[in-house]
Automatic annotation (TrEMBL):
Gene3D superfamilies for the chain: P-loop containing nucleotide triphosphate hydrolases
Name by which UniProt lists this protein: ABC transporter
Alphabetical UniProt keywords: ATP-binding, Nucleotide-binding, Transport
ABC transporter domain location: 4-226
CDD domains: ABC_NrtD_SsuB_transporters
PANTHER family: ALIPHATIC SULFONATES IMPORT ATP-BINDING PROTEIN SSUB, TAURINE IMPORT ATP-BINDING PROTEIN-RELATED
Annotated Pfam families: ABC_tran
Taxonomic lineage from the root: Bacteria, Pseudomonadati, Pseudomonadota, Gammaproteobacteria, Oceanospirillales
Superkingdom of this protein's organism: Bacteria
Amino acid sequence: AKHLDLWQVSKTYQSAQGPVEAVSDVTMSIEEGDFVSILGPSGCGKSTLMMMLAGLESITDGVVVERGRQVTGPREDVGLIFQDATLLPWLSVLDNVLFPVKILKKPRNEYLRRAHDLLAMVGLSKFENHRPSQLSGGMRQRVSICRALILDPPLLMMDEPFSALDAITRDEMNLALLDIWQKNPKTGVFITHSIREAVLLSDRVLVMGGRPSKVVCDIKIPFGRP
Ligand code: ADP
Ligand code: ADP
């Protein structure tokens, strides 16, 4: 089944230098359970496209449909991971993971077990009561992945989630992501500058580019994930 449908989606920013056409006329579908990587040079509109899919950036033109319904704003069923782990420094690791639960006023008790399990999965059980400042960059990013997964969102969007990490941690995170997908497949949108990572993790690779920027290439990876 289709999870997301984009119909002639465009974005033009207004800046002091005049209008910037960041994304031009993208029409495509993303299937339920697909892991889609987005590649392309800096400034080609990858983040803008992802933020429009997540409802965090307004759309200048076009329509985004999620499971048959037109969507406009931010939604609970979208998990987000960014390049830098934006953890709250005054909260413990555990409370950072549970932060979406608190914001959405859901019962903490029902999610505590899942928070413990997620932190165990990324090897951070011993650090639940630490503050973010006591962790390395890679560990903080693992916490932000747990936070994105705590509500078990059917749609996970990641904007260069591993680019601030060293090569070894990055490989570990790739394996962790594969593991998450094996245990609980979901729809993924993954921005990366690494072709290797895109091919390793995804079912499909989109390449953006050109002026104004569009999706110029759309490749299915037939052998899929291991
Ligand atoms: P990246 O290549 O890592 O996506 P960018 O430089 O394209 O980084 O954008 C980084 C952030 O700065 C984005 O959140 C974007 O909204 C903002 N940004 C980028 N270009 C401009 C601009 N010309 N004016 C205002 N904000 C901008
Ligand atoms: P990418 O993620 O591929 O690096 P972005 O989506 O961040 O690309 O940016 C696409 C284009 O839009 C760039 O030219 C960037 O400078 C511009 N841009 C991004 N955010 C803003 C903003 N808030 N205001 C003005 N221009 C922006």
